[in-house]
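From the methods appendix. Each design record in this collection lists the tokenized structure first, followed by the designed amino acid sequence. Records were kept in a plain field format so they could be parsed without special tools. The example shown here is representative of the layout used throughout.

RECORD:
FOLD TOKENS (115 positions):
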């Protein structure tokens, strides 16, 4: 499982982790169905100030995109996230921080290339 998926999985199951890393995550850091899932999680947390359940995301996510194949992939991914992950807390924090930094640098380089 790549780091994006581990981050998303932990956002859904670990409130302490979620509150700690959410201010540092950006939608642009995610790709494809991961981006759609992150948008659903972020929208729910912004509105209700708590972590969404998998079933609430299953209802909300189809309304976030017109791309049916992306929605289908996202819902399939979400099904894999129903169980709480067993990940060392400090390890996932370290990996998330490194991933955020790497994605930020990558996106900045890509933007400068486009300019």
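DESIGN:
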């Amino acid at each position: 499982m790549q780091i994006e998926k581990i981050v998303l999985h932990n956002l859904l199951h670990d409130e302490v982790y979620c509150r700690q890393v959410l201010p540092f995550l950006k939608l642009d850091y995610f790709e494809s169905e991961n981006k759609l899932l992150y948008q659903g999680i972020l929208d729910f947390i912004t509105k209700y100030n708590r972590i969404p359940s998998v079933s609430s995301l299953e209802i909300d996510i189809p309304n976030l995109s017109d791309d049916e194949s992306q929605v289908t992939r996202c819902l399939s991914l979400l099904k894999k996230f129903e169980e709480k992950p067993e990940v060392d807390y400090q390890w996932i924090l370290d990996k998330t921080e490194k991933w955020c930094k790497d994605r930020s640098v990558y996106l900045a380089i890509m933007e400068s290339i486009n300019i």
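APPENDIX NOTE: The mean pLDDT is 92.
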